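Before surveying the methods themselves, it helps to consider a single example record, giving the amino acid sequence and backbone structure tokens:
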Amino acid sequence: MDPFEKVAIGATGVEVTRLGMGGVFVAGREHGDGRAPSDYQTALATLDKAYEIGVRYFDTAPFYGRGRSERRFGKVLGRYPRDSFVLSTKVGRILVPDEDDPGQWVEDGIPHLAARFDLSRDGILRAFEESLARHGLERIEILYLHDPDVADMEAEAVATAFPTMVELKEQGLVRAIGTGMNQWEMPARFLEHFDLDVILLAGRYTLLDQSAFERFLPLCQERGTRIVVGGPYNSGILAARDLDQPVWFNYAQAPSQWIAKARAIAAVCARHGVDMRAAALQFPLAHPAVAAVIPGAATPEQVVENAALIETSIPDDLWRELAAEGLVPREAPVPSAG
């Protein structure tokens, strides 16, 4: 597979590279799987390396590092021609002064901030405008509604958040809209109300967890909605070197049934001499609804490694064996070595 092939997001005029850059680990804070974040200079070097090797899709959010991820993306991407890359960020949370931890992130030039949900019209517009200011860029191509399920705000999303985002698109302030979540059921309901261009689906169509395959991905194909797969390593379990050590799944310690399945997948990969991480990145990309995968990276070396893993040739027999063992659906599209 070519990690730098560009794929269109419907008729929006937006094209993303198959390999994108997720913005969690460059945010300077630990994430739910316990991996250490980048320090400031490493974060900037990681973003620079992603652009240097050919990544042209970058995803971030106010929630990541409470503003620091957006600030760092803007600092690096502002060095490059604005038409040469696609940027996505998110609304649904606003950032406010952190009363429990006042202070300043000196290197980033922003105060310590806390996040709170706000799906009102004013909240969506404020989050969008403040994201633009933190990036220091004149536009954002893709705008996602971030985690409305976490605060049980489905009704507010339908009543106020998405209509406001539709207005931003109609005004030409963004080119594509969607939602970013760790489940597929609520996005499916959103598609009953709105023509969403793209959905950032984290962890629900991966080499380990294909729960979105049967119902959600066909719905997206029918509606012409593209999928960006976040968390393709399922919080690290699919990238683990030793599954006998504690591993993470879905931002928590992995339950035994998921560890057992990961071990079975790892055994198939080992029999075919394939790095399980390569299979993890390539499997979702084979589905026609999927436009891109956006694994996080904390170092320049990890960015380069992710690209190399997507380019790795995987024998067809590996996919056949995974299907025969019931580890992936028999009907699921898979990459072809030919």
